[in-house]
Amino acid sequence: MTNLSEEKTTPMIAPNTPEPAKSRTVRFRIKRTDGPGKNSRWESFDVPVEPGANVISCLQYIAANPVTIEGKKTTPVVWDSGCLEEVCGACSMVINGRVRQSCSCLIDQYAPNDGDVITLEPMTKFPVIRDLWVDRERLFYHLRKIQAWVPIDGTYSRGPGPREDPEHQQMRYKLSTCMSCGCCLEACPQYTLEEHEEKWDEAFVGAAVLSQARYFNEHETGKRLKSLRLDVLSGPGGVNDCGNAQNCVKVCPKEIPLTESIAAIGRSTTLHSITKFFTGK
Amino acid sequence: MSGSANQRIAIVGGGLAGLAAAVRIAESGMHADLFSLVPVKRSHSVCAQGGINACNDIARQQGYSEYEHFDETIYGGDYLGDQHPVLEMANWAPRIIDLLDRMGVPFNRTSEGFRDLRLFGGSLFKRTHFSGATTGQQLLYALDEQVRRYEAEGLVKKYEFWEFLWPVIDGEGENSRCVGIVAQDLRTMQIRSFRADAVVMATGGPGLVFGKSTNSVMCNGGAASRCYQAGAWYANPEMIQVHPTAIPGADKCRLMSESARGEGGRVWVPRKPGDSRKPSQIPETERWYFLEEKYPKYGNLVPRDIATREIFDVCVNQGMGVGGGNMVYLDLTHKDPEYLTTKLGGIMEIYEKFVGEDPRYTPMKIFPAVHYSMGGLWTTFTKGSYNPETPYGSHKSGTATPIDSEPGRGMAIGATNNAMTNIPGLYAFGEVNFAYHGATRLGANALLSCIFDGLFCGLGVVNYVKDEVTPEHRAENLHASIYDRVVKQEQDKVDRLVQSASQGGSDPQTNPYQIARELGDEMTAACTVVKTHDRLTKCIENLRQLRDRYNRVRLSDDAIWTNQSLSFTRATGDMIILAELIALASLERKESRGSHYRLDFPERDDANFLKTCTGEYDPATGSHRILWREVDTSLVKPRARTYGKVEAAPEKKTIATANA
Lengths: 281, 660
Hints:
The complex is a heterodimer of chains A (about 280) and B (about 650). Chain A is built from nine helices and seven strands. Chain A has two domains: about 25-135, Beta-grasp domain (Ubiquitin-like (UB roll)), CATH 3.10.20; about 135-280, Orthogonal Bundle (Fumarate Reductase Iron-sulfur Protein, Chain B, domain 2), CATH 1.10.1060. Helices cover about 30% and strands about 15% of the residues of chain A. In chain A, the strands form two sheets. In chain A, strands 2-1-5-3-4 form a five-stranded mixed beta sheet. Chain B folds into three domains: about 10-240 and about 375-475, FAD/NAD(P)-binding domain (3-Layer(bba) Sandwich), CATH 3.50.50; about 245-370, Flavocytochrome C3, Chain A, domain 1; about 480-610, Fumarate reductase/succinate dehydrogenase flavoprotein-like, C-terminal domain (Methane Monooxygenase Hydroxylase, Chain G, domain 1). Chain B is about 35% helix and about 15% strand. Chain B contains 16 helices and 21 strands. In chain B, the strands form five sheets. In chain B, strands 13-12-17-16-14-15 form a six-stranded antiparallel beta sheet. In chain B, β7 (about 160-170) and β8 form a beta hairpin. Chain B starts with 7 loop residues before the first strand and ends in a 30-residue tail after the last strand. The relative contact order of chain B is 0.17. The model of chain B is unreliable at about 655-660 (pLDDT under 50).
């Protein structure tokens, strides 16, 4: 490899993605809010579609060129994102009325025609911080509440963990891919906006947290806390708040069997209550 | 001395390294404040796919050992890694796997229920443990859960959506110590100081310096750059790993894990340049499996820098890329689709979602992308008990190892300077620590080094705070002015940037997003796969111009609430400074080693450059100084790094395609 010419070093990560036959734009209608308690407004932007564009790259374009279709200069839109490959859960938003990850929303598939309109709104079940960015702390609060961890005896080595049947591992693996993105909560009729942290103990935990409870209850060591988790989940905000609308499983980007998890937790809490009734424990 | 109840340790970054440190510190009963740009569960570690390396019972029975893992890592890193820390890391690896297993990580299982293993680059043994193709996500979640437990107990306090702005350093020169940080809440924009008796930087890599990379949006290297500007040394900046297999997008490049090749994936191009047939219509004899031909021993599993250069050579130099462009096939279609779903489901899904084709039935089209920084903040350590009189030579699998795998052989357990930067009290863990990976990181060693730093070196941090911070030097007893000075420095910076918004104008010359984009394009062109003196010199000049433009930068948002452009713009300035150092180091290292390939100096030059390149920043002049530190090769002798290469050319159609 001695004859690589210098000029050829330039296209390193720009392989020959074919240029589109003709350039086109899509129109973004974005619901904007300057901060908590502020009124929201709509702004629209025309964005030229790059090859391989997704909602994120269009928002990046708007950040660099914050001018509305009326030619009015505005501020860059604020949004939350991270990995951009649908494993971190950050970039959930409501796109044309349906909650999903914005990174995997590819423009060429989603809005294939010149002038197509894409509407972006923040999720409605969480307090808005600014524009499309919401605060999902309630989800993590509820994970703490159900003790979503395996209670190990410290981090020094004590040999391997429990052996596990591969089928069981596959089941647990699927549950473990939950990235706390909040899509299932946005789609759930029973999960409603609650801005006050002091009311979170009574508020519905939602599908993601129920499924995580199942995940930890299914682990040999994790099940040591099963009874405590079921105590929480048979109380207010627990599994009985589920209205069985089954929207959660339809919007989950990781296709986690959330309704199965809810059913499993429902059975466990029932059994748990009966046991408690008869044994007093 | 034994520390006080008010003593706190600040951890910056909530990926694997930061979380592992938090767990170890909290377990010791000490309080940790954990700062992260994002909720820690969304840290960039989630993107790691392939797995985590460790010697294991099966490999051991085939002649493998912790020592061989160590040897592979040093050889893979082209002898630039710190040998003592790498030995210790390899020795702890099996214990770390056991621990993760106990934490509930859903590692893939064999039919008997044991942990499954796969092959990975740079090794001939199966020594990679994995959880589907989302191993990083699974490990991060396990540690996130353990930290949540300590958070509930009150030992860890999280500051999520807080940005680290600057380390607080008390004293001058030899007597300086890091005593806290200044950070900003990205929602309220409040800037404040946090007192800490030690600060652990676990802030990951600087992928965004190169524009599009495989990294997450927060991996801009800003935090490392700020520590560097505040006096911390930055080592081997020129060692940037370009991953051979990624899919390019408009916003980033998405990784297609090395595990695809570990599970049998084959890289090829049509033997006929510009062949327009569909890949499935191209018969076996008309496919060029160039990696298998050139590297009969390792095949598709040569280390990443080698695979990347070969792909680059085939596409750019020989014009043999798919359809005449810069792409090659990564082919898994000969494997059972169900097997692929179980072993590689995570990346199958990413490819399907982002490209729209099913890699179980159509070969993937991939190309290299910037992925990882071997370089990072310079750190030191205390040597362990293994210090032979003469370095060991080439190790042969199955033969007796020169040393066993007891803890403390490589690094002294609990030593307070393990993974400490040149500034006492300031530590660097994980990707931001330069120590382990030398000039190329082997696949599935990154997760290991992150967790190892957090757990092993975390103990040293606790000991430092307990034993070496005297009561009068404790952060709680220091004068407020030490902290207020840094808060003011950062507040002034913010005020300047916010005021620039009022100057208006939409000049691309001063648009921060435009400047960042040009920075990425320039760094990708000059400082990645192939570097030359002329291009690097031009790059340094271009960076100077970008820095001038940055000094006149104008924001388009003057909000004092959740101003993302402010944070982005501030980081862009820090990225330019880090970029200058990367380019300068690339220019000064006049040899080729690992990921650093100089067309004008194509050979490794141990006589002059078996050295750690260390950058020091002069804030007064804004200039960089490079010093070369000897690499300690007292454990293993350097040998030629060839991976058994033989010559091969597309027209040699008779060569067997061995692994078909």
